[in-house]
Amino acid sequence: MAQLAVAAAGAAVGSLFGAPQVGWLVGSFIGSQLFAEKQQIEGPRLGDLQVQASTYGMGIPQVFGSMRLAGNVIWARPLIEKRRKQSAGKGGGGQTVVSYEYFATFAVAFARGPVDAIRRVWADGKLLVDLAESSINGRSFRFGEQIYRIHLGSETQVPDPVIEMHEGPDNAPAYRGLVYLTFDELPLRDFGNRIPNITAERSSPPAPPCTPISTSIWAPRASTSGASTAG
Q1: Are residues 70 and 182 in the same domain?
Q2: Is this prediction's pTM over 0.85?
Q3: Which of 93, 133, 176, 179 could form a disulfide with 89 if both were Cys (CB 3.0 to 4.6 A apart)?
Q4: For residues 21 and 104, what is the distance between their CA atoms, to the nearest angstrom?
């Protein structure tokens, strides 16, 4: 309505000079600039914030030496959605662009422990971290926006602090004897807004040498009793 009022006023002024059409056009332009309606553009958004399912009953591998293994999700929280608004026009007017970013907090198990180190971690084949030396049990690492924590599968390892924070101290398992990683708010924009396939290179002591076991063959003992004679 305000735009129409300004356009009508422009037409009235233009009629004084014998050009009401020109006045209407000028008034419409001025009104559109003064009373422009703000538009909001919504970016793509997920309809389901639940994480992917993990494989139930999957075997836990035990590997000697160094090997790259695929992980299995053993704990996860619903995806975290963060909404961002940004104005595209001048002075706060015009369009407002709304975008959504997603983050995942989860734990991935790899093998039976204990192991010496987890040296490299990949997500969908993309290298996230490369530790030249041995990793430290229970230590957090930050590489860019990625935060993760290493658990090397000892029988004395304690529950992960992130799992404790969400589940409570009495409900957080320690996963003793299990090699696993926890990720705290991993950005998912590079992985199609889903938890990527996590693989890791683990290093453990070589297999112990095999010692041959001596075997004996059981045989019945010979009879020592004499034969009876008739007579």
Answers
A1: yes
A2: no
A3: 93
A4: 59
| Cα 174 to Cα 105: distance, rounded to the nearest angstrom | 17
Query: What pLDDT score was predicted for residue 89?
Result: 62
- Which residue range forms the structural domain that includes residue 12? 2-36
Distance CA(80)–CA(100), nearest Å, equals 10
Q: Is residue 93 situated within a structural domain?
A: no
Q: Return d(Cα 26, Cα 231) in angstroms, integer.
A: 150
Q: pLDDT by residue (tens digit) across 120-142?
A: 889 888 888 877 654 555 555 66
* Cα of 225 vs its chain's centroid, Å: 80
How far apart are the C-alpha atoms of 103 and 98, rounded to whole Å? 17
Compute the residue count for the chain: 231
Shared domain for 31 and 107, answered yes or no, is no
Judge contact between 145 and 157, C-beta under 8 A: no
Q: Is 156 exposed, middle or buried (0-12, 13-18, 19+ CB in 10 A)?
A: exposed
154 and 72: one domain? yes
Give the chain's domain count: 2
